[in-house]
Design a protein that fits this description.
single chain, 505 residues, alpha/beta, Aldehyde Dehydrogenase, Chain A, domain 1, Aldehyde Dehydrogenase, Chain A, domain 2, 17 helices, 39% helix, disordered N terminus
Length: 505
């Protein structure tokens, strides 16, 4: 990138691994039918480093013709090369895929850090570890997908079920966890015998293209995985509208998820949606207050709050309210903001100028309405002054009707509210259109499980927050979506059941 000798510009060259530097210097093309190709139209778009605001790559932009080619390639592989592999052979391919992702973890972490802004150390420890876990876990399912023999009440009949792949899957993943979410969808889809067209978010296309390279190296036949970078209104719309797509797996915003569900209804495509959240993190007075408050800060400020599961609404029992607010602000002040390639960075930038404007708008409007704003630290200056940074922010004195209490901000902004009784807490915590996740902090086991049962959320963490594992289902209630990633439940959305009747007489 030629930045040496210019102290006003953050020097990423000095921090890049050789493999990453080489990858960034390549042409970033579409993966269709086992070959990296330019878009049929020749169109490209720019990908930026959000910590500096500078362009890092030009990426091929898939159009409707490219989508059609990719879906047709996936359909051929579905009935051909992928279907012909024995279950044990498909399992071996997935295990090689997992091993290659793990072996390239350092390069993948740097690529995603440059593209998304998230610290590379966190990407390696969290995103890549979870992605590898999903691939490895689902590889084990390939040889365990089985039907049943049914004891029907019709004489002289042998009846059994087959579990078959649903078909070509359109996997559309977000910019906040691009590689991790890609693996969450690829792993069960491939284990079920489906083939996939993967569309990464336009803000973060690079790790998906690198993942496609590793998939080919692992032995996935051509067409089993196709990667089409592009924008939602063009590439995404062409993909969800394509008649050859049988299933759409989407993680992203509530608005886009609803649009996908409406579009898919015309052709009765299978759909699973993991959408937003406004997640209550509850601290009772009998909790380990210091530990709970420290984790509460991480729960919202990890990845600059750009996490659907972020503990963005901290609800604190009144006797310890002031103490928790002070502790969270103090913890937030310790967090280092910086470039994702710097080893000491905890919080990187927001993903784009548009996202920074959105988050800043929420905070400004809250302040104008009388909400008290406590900001911890400042955005970095100097070589990173052009980045899209937002300091950790704590909002106090916002009531339940406030915009910042109701809406998903998707940034490093925490709303802290007091409560007095358990009954009041349950009613207020559930008075939201979202239902993705929640946290509960208490030493009282009975209270912990009673509260977990009462909260309307797909996942509840007790005396911890933000834990994930390949075996544990992940997804939401209400307008946080339907369907699950991870666990045995994730496989179900990529399978369909066929019943076979045979007359024995």
């Amino acid at each position: 990138m030629g930045l040496q000798g210019n102290p006003a510009v953050f020097d990423t060259d000095a921090l890049l691994r050789p493999g990453v530097r080489a990858f960034l210097g390549e042409r970033h093309r579409l993966l269709i039918d086992g070959v990296f190709v330019d878009a049929a139209s020749g169109a490209t778009f720019e990908s930026f480093d959000p910590a500096t605001g500078r362009k890092i790559a030009d990426v091929a932009h898939a159009g409707a013709e490219d989508v059609d080619r990719a879906v047709r390639a996936a359909a051929r592989a579905l009935e051909g090369s992928w279907a012909r592999l024995l279950p044990a052979e498909r399992e071996a391919v997935l295990r090689r895929f997992a091993a290659l992702v793990e072996g390239h973890a350092d390069d993948l972490a740097q690529i995603e850090a440059l593209d998304s802004g998230k610290p590379a150390s966190q990407i390696k420890a969290v995103d890549i570890a979870l992605g590898v876990g999903a691939l490895s876990y689902n590889a084990g399912w390939v040889t365990k997908i089985e039907g049943r023999t049914l004891p029907v009440s019709v004489p002289d009949m042998h009846v059994y079920t087959r579990r078959e792949p649903v078909g070509v899957v359109a996997a559309i993943v977000p910019w906040n966890f691009p590689l991790c979410q890609a693996c969450f969808k690829l792993a069960p889809a491939l284990a079920a015998g489906c083939t996939v067209v993967l569309k990464p978010a336009e803000q973060t296309p690079l790790s998906a293209l690198y993942l496609g390279r590793l998939a080919l190296e692992a032995g996935l036949p051509p067409g089993v995985l196709n990667v089409l970078p592009g924008f939602g209104a063009t590439t995404g719309q062409a993909l969800i509208s394509h008649p050859g797509v049988a299933k759409i797996a989407f993680t992203g915003s509530e608005r886009t998820g609803k649009h996908i569900a409406r579009s898919a209804a015309d052709s009765l495509k299978h759909v699973s949606l993991e959408l937003g959240g406004k997640n209550p993190n509850v601290i009772f007075a009998d909790a380990d207050v210091e530990a709970a408050a420290a984790v509460a800060a991480i729960a919202i400020f990890f990845y600059s709050g750009q996490v659907c599961a972020a503990g963005s609404r901290l609800m604190v029992e009144r006797p310890i309210y002031d103490r928790v607010v002070e502790t969270v602000i103090a913890e937030a002040g310790k967090l280092k903001l910086g470039h994702g390639l710097s080893g000491d960075t905890f919080m990187g930038p927001l993903v784009s100028a548009q996202q920074l404007q959105r988050v800043s708008g929420f905070v400004s409007r809250a302040a104008e309405s009388g909400v008290r704003v406590a900001q911890a630290g400042t955005a970095p200056q100097g070589a990173l002054a052009g980045g899209f940074f937002h300091a950790p922010t704590v909002l106090v004195d916002a009531d339940d009707t406030a915009e910042v209490t109701r809406e998903e901000i998707f940034g490093p902004v925490l709303v802290v509210q007091p409560f007095d009784t358990l009954g009041e807490l349950k009613a207020r915590a559930n008075a939201t259109s979202f239902g993705l996740s929640a946290g509960v902090w208490t030493r009282d086991v009975k209270k912990a499980h009673a509260t977990a049962a009462a909260l309307q959320a797909g996942t509840v963490w007790i005396n911890t927050y933000g834990q994930f594992d390949a075996t544990a289902p992940w997804g939401g209630f209400k307008q946080s979506g339907y369907g699950r990633d991870n666990g045995a439940e994730s496989l179900e959305k990529y399978l369909q059941t066929k019943t076979v009747w045979t007359a024995l007489a």
